[in-house]
Amino acid sequence: MPAVPAASSAAVAGTASSKPLGIGFPYISVLPPELYRSGLLDFVELTPDTLCRARRDGAATRLDLAPERLERARKVCGALPVVVHGVELSIGSAQHWNAAYLDMLDQLQACWPFVWHSEHLSYQTIPGENGAPLDIGVPLPLPGTWEAVDLVAERAAVIRQRYGVPFLLENPAHYLINLPYERGIDDEIGLITQITARSGCGQLLDLHNLYCNAINLGFDPFAAIDRTALHRVREIHVAGGSWRGGFWMDAHNGRVPNPVWELLAYTLPRCPNIAGVVYELLEEYAPRLGVAALDQELSRARYLWERHGPGSRAQD
């Protein structure tokens, strides 16, 4: 695959054309709809895979939006702006990405336009029997090679042009020690920096993922922030996790750890094109955490946004 030329500074700046939104939260169907009308939120992050049904179409699998799920989500979210965060694209798979996901995203954009969208910088399918894609069950980090940079940069550039809104790649959490990286890439920060520079796409900076990797792999997360291309960061994720088998897991199962809040306070004023912060939580943990705790986490995110985000005194 031919190398993709680096995007110009103007192209990167062009991904930040719309105004900042503020504080976001995923659409979670089991939560009271009042949460989304409470004033705690400025926008909603949709994972469109949860609004779909999969069906076989010959040898292929299609993802079709389920009308009743889509209608309920639109009714709950009301007039809040929507951004998309996908999990099924597998943008780094060597064989091919999940074209069915993009076909479904076409459907969603036509009926419920989104402000920007994002995907994980990972892969989760490998060639299976007769060349059919085999889902390996968990997203894995990309190999640190220039071949991977070229592959994903070309795909990301195509996606950015396809939808005409900013497309972001998220730095992943992983649990693999001493991954090799080719010269000039050097580490996972270098990998995503090269891909976003060549494709013109932005970055979703997941601070909990960074925190996980810092604990499990043994590096300073603040030093990692200092080396990140923060002018490309449009969205930030914060989340909670838990210990399992000696690793701190990106479980999205509770409150945000204090060190992640500290990372957010440090990072926000250094991101000139930041547009939103999302507190991530998986649907199965939302009822256990409760609305009162959600209120506290979202309020803390807003406090930091107003103190350190766009337009704050800390930015002056």
Radius of gyration: 19 Å
The helix/strand class is alpha/beta
Approximately what portion of the residues adopt beta-strand conformation? 15-25%
CATH superfamily: Divalent-metal-dependent TIM barrel enzymes
Question: Terminal Cα separation, in Å?
Answer: 45 Å
Q: Portion of residues in helices? A: 25-40%
CATH architecture: Alpha-Beta Barrel
Strand order of the largest sheet: 1-2-5-6-9-10-11-14
What's the β-strand tally? 14
* Unreliable parts: 1-16
Largest sheet features: 8 strands, parallel, barrel
How many separate domains make up the residues? 1
Q: Quick one: overall form?
A: globular
Question: What is the CATH third-level topology name?
Answer: TIM Barrel
Q: Order of helices and strands, N to C? A: HEEEEHEHEEEHEHEHHEEEHEHH
Mean pLDDT equals: 90
CATH class, named Alpha Beta
How many H/I helical runs?
10
How would you portray this structure in words?
Strand 5 (82-85), helix 3 (99-111) and strand 6 (117-120) form a beta-alpha-beta unit. It is globular and about 50 Å long. The protein has ten helices and 14 strands. It has one domain (9-315): Divalent-metal-dependent TIM barrel enzymes (TIM Barrel, Alpha-Beta Barrel). The strands form four sheets. It has an eight-stranded parallel barrel with strand order 1-2-5-6-9-10-11-14, surrounded by five helices. A two-stranded antiparallel sheet has the order 3-4. 35% of the residues lie in helices and 21% in strands. The termini are far apart. The model is unreliable at 1-16 (pLDDT under 50). It is an alpha/beta fold and 316 residues long.
